[in-house]
Amino acid sequence: MIDIFTTGGTIDKVYFDANSQFEIGASRVSEMLAEANIRDGFHIHELLRKDSLDLTAEDRDCIVSAVRSCPGQRILITHGTDTMAETADALDAVSDKTIVLFGAMQPARMRVSDAVFNLGFAWGAVQNLPSGVYIAMNGEVFEAGAVRKNREAQRFERA
């Protein structure tokens, strides 16, 4: 069984038009899993609906607490890309689970998005990695504490 915690971020952003602000909508993870023909073997838990730039220390404590108290050993977390590495570092205190964070550079609701690929890649990664905290983005797996987002290149890389 894989537990999936949703926290918001670009993957769940909704844009109404070019002149409006975005908002974080309901998670599309269950729809994306269905598109991938994954229909069982998971539980989805909504924790937050926030842009990762708006996450506070208390929010990260909430994420760590939810993961720590979850009976499952394999955890996926949707997360905004801007502060994903910080949350991965905070989760490093949980040592007995395999935790994989993923997100998207473009919202899942957009026609062209990396969201579905990143979810599928993270799904495979969480089932095959040993205990630890990882970020799975754009076909690469990074260990917590050894990754950073390259905003200019719009990708993650080893720190």
Features:
159 residues; alpha/beta; Rossmann fold; six-stranded mixed beta sheet; two-stranded antiparallel ribbon; 10 strands; 31% strand; globular
Number of helices: 4
- Global geometry: globular
Radius of gyration: 14 Å
State the name of the first-level CATH class. Alpha Beta
Q: Which class do the helix and strand fractions yield?
A: alpha/beta
- Alpha carbon gap, first and last residue: 31 Å
Let me know the CATH homologous superfamily: L-asparaginase, N-terminal domain
Number of domains: 1
Largest sheet: 6 strands, mixed
CATH architecture field:
3-Layer(aba) Sandwich
CATH fold call: Rossmann fold
Strand content: 25-35%
Spatial order of the strands forming the largest sheet: 4-1-5-6-7-8
Provide the succession of SSEs.
Answer: EEEHEHEHEHEEEE
Describe the structure.
The protein has 159 residues and is of the alpha/beta class. It contains four helices and ten strands. The protein has helices spanning 29-35, 57-69, 84-91, 115-128, and strands spanning 2-8, 13-15, 22-24, 42-50, 74-78, 98-102, 132-137, 140-143, 147-150, 155-158. The longest helix is centred in the C-terminal third of the chain and has 14 residues, at 115-128. The N and C termini lie far apart (31 Å). The model has no long low-confidence stretch (mean pLDDT 94).
